[in-house]
Amino acid sequence: MESLVLDIVTPNGHHYKQPTGLFINNEFVAAASGQTITSIDPATDKPIATVHAAGAEDVDRAVHAAKVALGHASWKKLSPTDRGQMMAKLAQLIDQNKELFASIDAWDNGKPYHVALNEDLPEAITTIQYYSGWADKTFGQTISTTPDKFAYTLRQPIGVIAQIIPWNYPLSMAAWKLGPALACGNTIVLKPAEQTPLSILVLATLIKTAGFPPGVINILNGTGKDAGAALVAHPLVDKVAFTGSTATAKHIMKTAADTLKNITLETGGKSPLLVFPDADLEQAVKWAHFGIMSNQGQICTATSRVFVHRAVMDEFLARFRETVTTTSIVGDQWDENTFQGPQVTRAQYERVLQYVDIGKREGATLFMGGEKAVVADPKNRSGYFVQPTVFTDVTDEMRIAREEVFGPVVVVLPFEEEDEAVRRANDSTYGLGAAVFTRDIQRGHRVAAEIEAGMVWINSSQDCDPRVPFGGVKQSGIGRELGQAGLEAYSQVKAVHVNMGTKL
Ligand code: NAP
Ligand code: MG
User: What is d(CA 235, CA 378) in angstroms, rounded to the nearest whole number?
Assistant: First the structure.
């Protein structure tokens, strides 16, 4: 593959230059591996662009660049104030190009353009802005010990960070990773998901414009099995920060153990949403719908198990059907009316439909959906569209109630008692999000405390804010991202003992 830049026009008319190389030391370079990745438009099943894909040799080169940058005065001696300003500048540059970024992510991932523009982009921009403010506010402590002695602590970067991100929110997942790592003074090699390789390369061009020294942020497209695995195994990588499936996270943890790398893992979920009989049902239905059907159901915190008190089950289901029918409009990325675009890849599309079959074979009732969705426009006939799908008569043991589908598929389960609802909600290997709908404030807080999850929403679902810690318990992850907690993941504390006296 020769060219390192392509002239592209997006389906909504943005003419832009798409870099295709690996971004190392602030330059786009060809992959030594000779490997490529072709990005596909999931609405049409047609290729968008082919980019370079890193192999082990490329990974080694990028890691060395990050290692050199870590010790280079241009980064190491940069004042935290200047570092913060560089980050703020990057956020501003993304903001100035937000329509282009939203167009690329919508095209590449399948999410509606208006969602990319109004949800993903603000999230990416505010996350980098938020952490730009932390850059000059992360201090150590002074600790008094004896009359002659004291100690102080320095909060220092961890070093070279490998960041491996998924495809469901390409740009905002990158921002979640880059923001806190840069605020703490680390250097980075980031591997995007092979399904969504494009927007991050445009971001790379802005990294240079914002003034980051060469080697501070390196971006390598590539597959998990080649580029991802080589990064995790590389001896000069000090930490791996990963978002993706629990299966991959286990693999990464094992490999990282060889050189005792620090890790942060944000993985899957089967998050419960509990509707008590005193809930505002209109709100419960609205959020239950949003909690599973938004982003094509491709959200790690999707509230995919809805437990509804038996007294309100019939009304809940009737209203849920109505909301899905009127709100979950399936279509391509460019139609303003689209709520649900295609699934990201053919593999994910097939996986979702397989789970529908599994549910049917397990004896659950297909309450609605369950088929390929046929959209009107003939150019989208081969797109990966799935109907929003609801199962009832589900038991806790069924695979559709236990495994992460990662699509617009929800199971609705009845319950009778609060204790029972909490016990069944907690009967999962996962523990990422959870939602509770009730008008009883005591119950709301009591259940929030009892649920095994990293995040709980009371009378809501999917709220996420750069100021608020995000992460899972049990097999949903290790460590926290976002908020002040996110800084812990990217800094380490050094203790310095000072002796001002002469006594032993
Ligand atoms: P995945 O395989 O876990 O991918 C996540 C990231 O890890 C990608 O960048 C991937 O590279 C990389 N990767 C894969 N194998 C690796 C390895 N051995 N070493 C290092 N990195 C590796 O997830 P997926 O295949 O895209 O999706 C499968 C399932 O994961 C979904 O159905 C869903 O259940 C879950 N998922 C969860 C989230 C989340 O936000 N928690 C996001 C996406 C998916 P490639 O780009 O080459 O795959
Ligand atoms: Mg794609």
Answer: 51
